[in-house]
Design brief:
globular
């Protein structure tokens, strides 16, 4: 059966943003732990990959715009973005949650020790990325009230939002490479490649012309566009 262009695009996206992370995870040499711990780690990895995927929903992706209508892209973006943010928001809790099923230090004590270990660069980067992500999510939720306060209105909002998205990605990626149990060389290269390609698409959108406020609703409000 011949695949349509839309179906091919969806299959390709699933292969890159879901299939490849799963493959790299399976091929990784990190010692396996309990099913719960591995499931939470994998869920976090996929959520971060989905966050990186938001850069590819930018209006500079002409191929995507040629296949799907802007409202369709916007709907997919919102579902994926809010889901991924929710998962990463709970990431610190996921690290200590399994301790409820184990002996030793209590989960709350482990959590407090983790978030106050400011001598560990990886921890500091993770906390900074988490805070930036929370600000990113809150500002997206209240974007309609915030946009009129920017000097350049919608253009100013886009630059502000894009800056937050890039900052979160850099901090989270650095944190992941520094501390991630499953972020080996292959996974790190994969994440870095997606991030660089995503940044390039964002730069193409911002530097390719002076963006003005669209006549209709932006195709992917909340996306780094």
């Amino acid at each position: 059966m011949k695949l349509s262009a839309r179906t091919y695009a969806i299959v390709t996206a699933l292969a890159v943003f879901v299939g490849l992370p799963l493959l790299l995870y399976g091929l990784g040499d990190a010692p396996r732990r309990s099913v719960l711990k591995e499931a939470l780690s994998l869920l976090t990895l996929l959520a971060f990959t989905m966050m990186l995927g938001q850069f590819f929903l930018a209006r500079s992706n002409e191929t995507l715009l040629g296949l799907f209508k802007p409202p369709q892209i916007q709907k997919v973006h919102k579902v994926i973005a809010y889901t991924a943010i929710g998962v990463i928001f709970l990431h610190p809790a996921f690290i200590v949650l399994p301790r409820y099923l184990e002996g030793g230090i209590r989960p709350w004590d482990a959590f407090w020790i983790m978030v106050t270990d400011f001598g560990n660069l990886g921890i500091v980067l993770g906390l900074a990325a988490w805070v930036v992500m929370v600000v990113l999510g809150i500002t997206v939720f209240f974007r309609r009230k915030l946009i009129p306060h920017f000097t350049l209105r919608y253009r100013g909002w886009r630059y502000f939002h894009g800056g937050l998205a890039v900052s979160f990605t850099v901090l989270a990626l650095w944190h992941s490479i520094a501390l991630g149990r499953h972020t080996d060389i292959a996974m790190s290269v994969f994440f870095l490649t997606l991030a660089l390609l995503g940044f390039a698409m964002l730069a193409r959108l911002y530097l390719g012309g002076q963006p003005g406020k669209p006549r209709s609703q932006p195709m992917s409000e909340g996306a780094p566009t």
